[in-house]
Amino acid sequence: xxxxxxxxxxxxxxxxxxAFYRRVLKHPRTPRASRYLLAAAIAYALSxxxxxxxxxxxxxxxxxLIVLPLLIWLALRLIPKDVMAECRNSMKDAATDxxxxxx
Length: 103
Hints:
By secondary structure, the chain is mostly helical. It has four helices and no strands.
C-alpha cells in the first residue's frame, strides 16, 4: 500500500470517527458530561490554540497526543454501551443506503 493510499485511508477513518462523535453528541441518552468532554475534544482538535504551542520541540506535539485521547477516552467511558452500538449501527446503515458515487 502506498503512502498516499494510507494517508487517504487514515483521513477517511478520521472523518468517520468525527461523524460518529457527532452522532453520539446528538443522541438523547448521552450523558451531559460526555457531551462536554467530546465537545471539548473536538474544539481542542480544531482550535489553533494549544496548551503548549507546537513550536516548542516535543512537548508542543506531546500535549496533543495526550489531551485529545484522554478527553475522548473519558467521554466514551461515560456513554452507555447500547448508545454507542446504536450510533455505530446507524452509521453503517447510512453508509449502505447511500447511492454509489460516480468514479
